[in-house]
UniProtKB/TrEMBL annotation:
Pfam families: p450
Keyword vocabulary terms for this entry: Iron, Metal-binding, Oxidoreductase, Signal
Classification lineage: Eukaryota, Viridiplantae, Streptophyta, Embryophyta, Tracheophyta
Topology term for the membrane: Single-pass membrane protein
Similarity annotation: Belongs to the cytochrome P450 family.
Principal localisation: membrane
Organism: Rehmannia glutinosa (Chinese foxglove)
Subcellular location: Membrane
Protein's UniProt name: Uncharacterized protein
Named cofactor requirement(s): heme
């Protein structure tokens, strides 16, 4: 294919092309990157700002692992997000990052994960999601499945992060105050990244006008809400030092970290990480499955093979190989985090020869990487879980054949690989089993082709309207 690199002009850079493609930034960059010989290109933004995009696995390994110390979140990223995320793990580099990573990692040990999938996810599923689906099936209602899955994930992550249940997924699908303000704050902060002239937001912030004024208000609301819960927790602690709650906040409090601002930062980062990611993955997954009945049948065979009442738990969920492959395959095409950006600390040269100047922003692009023909073959556009599987003739079952995390960096890779990866898979597989065992999820509009949009994570534009059918043979 001929390369599609946009024209660039002095001072203005490629502003016209950027502007023209602003509604489909991710797909546009993906088309360009996959058309270049090295799977790498440099976008010239206005005023001399450069940004390198790459879908080259050797470059990704270089940035995320072998030269990890040269690629930070960096000051631009940190300053842009600081008003919302403070110094939470998502917005931290160096020692501060290391410390948070270390304390939080205990939240993801086998015992915590077991508890999470059996209790937190299990209860949300049986007490909330299944009754809502049953009701929709009986009344032939249309549900926005994206919204339902976001509510599910929000309840879950709040319980993990600070042992608080916002009860966002209840039959009336209420406006939960915390979720609402969190959403608004996120939308406003991502506008900073998407503005074409990078410093305009700073002027607006200094003057406290427009979107920056709204941002200030919503961020304050998020933080007040979080602080209130934290204060309650601290009080619980002072009354009962031996409290053995297993949420993340309790873990930080019991390790002696009681600085309210700092623990608020931590909690907010975790909510951001765990909230829209699994719901985005599942939304696209259910759409793809609805279009591929052969895949749906295989998944159901696997779930029923597990055979436990009320849906499979920890060990069985772990063993759902075909479902695991189907989730990997849907995230290859629709990665919840489509692009992730680092900043070079010093001058460097990437393995493909691309020269990187100190301070340059460099983004690896999982969305493009799932579309590279040389890697996935001529049928890359097809949803085919079997590309992740091998049939073991003697055992009579599938086994999973993973890709290395640099070819498939959907969860990032290297020292900062997603902390919640295993938790996310457990949660998603439990939801898939709990839903598909009993229901069919059918797009309300036949032949629907959703529009992929993204800020930090991806969404289906306008939601995913579905009808729910209860299986007669469940
Ligand atoms: C399908 C679901 C998920 C996907 C695709 C995903 C993907 C990612 C990606 C790409 C990053 C790197 C972001 C960056 O720094 O640019 C990341 C980081 C992170 N994720 Fe996930 N994530 C998922 C679910 C979760 C869940 C459920 C949790 C927590 C409960 C979680 C916790 C984290 C944390 C704490 C980090 C920061 C790690 C660090 O900087 O050291 N993630 N994730």
């Amino acid at each position: 294919t001929p390369t599609k690199i946009p024209s660039s002009y002095p001072i203005l850079g490629s502003i016209f092309a950027i502007w023209k493609n602003k509604e489909r930034r991710v797909q546009w960059i993906s088309d360009i990157v996959t058309s270049t010989p090295n799977l790498t290109f440099t976008l010239h933004r206005p005023f001399g700002y450069r940004q390198i995009f790459t879908a080259n696995a050797a470059n990704v390994q270089h940035i995320l692992k072998s030269h990890f110390h040269n690629y930070h979140k960096g000051e631009v990223f940190r300053r842009t997000l600081r008003d919302f995320l403070g110094d939470g793990i998502f917005n931290a580099d160096g020692e501060n990052w290391k410390f948070q990573r270390q304390v939080s990692s205990h939240q993801f040990n086998t015992k915590s994960l077991k508890n999470f999938v059996e209790h937190v996810v299990g209860v949300e599923l049986s007490d909330r999601l299944v009754p809502i689906l049953k009701n929709a099936a009986e009344n032939n209602n249309v549900l926005d499945f994206q919204d339902v899955l976001q509510r599910f994930a929000f309840d879950n992550i709040c319980k993990i992060a600070f042992g608080y249940d916002p009860a966002y997924l209840t039959p009336s699908l209420p406006d939960a105050k915390f979720a609402g303000v969190f959403d608004n704050a996120l939308k406003r902060i991502s506008e900073r990244f998407n503005s074409n002239i990078p410093f305009v937001w700073k002027i607006k912030r200094a003057l406290c006008i427009g979107t920056e004024r709204d941002l200030k208000i919503t961020v304050q609301q998020v933080r007040e809400f979080a602080s209130e819960i934290i204060r309650e927790k601290k009080q619980e602690y002072s009354l009962n030092e031996s409290n053995t709650n297993n949420d993340l906040l309790s873990r930080f409090l019991s390790s002696g970290h009681k600085d309210e601002v700092f623990v608020t930062d931590i909690v907010i980062s975790f909510i951001l990480a765990g909230r829209d990611t699994t719901s985005a993955a599942l939304t696209w997954f259910f759409w793809l499955v609805s279009k591929n009945p052969g895949v749906e049948n295989e998944i159901i065979k696997e779930i029923r093979g597990n055979n436990s009442e009320g849906g499979p738990i920890y060990d069985e969920v772990k063993n759902m190989v075909y479902t695991h492959a189907s989730l990997c395959e849907s995230m290859r095409l629709y990665p919840p985090v489509p692009v992730s950006t680092k900043s070079a600390v010093n001058d460097d040269v990437l393995p493909d020869g691309t020269v990187v100047k100190r301070g340059t922003r460099i983004s690896y692009h999982p969305y493009a990487m799932g579309r590279v023909e040389k890697v996935w073959g001529a049928d890359w556009a097809e949803f085919r879980p079997e590309r992740w599987l091998e049939w073991e003739e003697t055992a009579g079952k599938w086994s999973f054949v993973g890709r290395d995390s640099f070819t498939y960096p959907v969860f990032q890779a290297g020292p900062r690989i997603c902390l919640g990866k295993e938790m996310a898979f457990l949660q998603m597989k439990r939801v898939v089993a709990g839903v598909l065992r009993r229901f069919r999820v059918v797009p309300a509009v036949e032949g629907m082709e959703p529009v992929y949009v993204s800020d930090f994570t991806t969404k289906m534009k306008g939601g995913f309207p579905v009808k729910i059918e209860e299986r007669v043979d469940h």
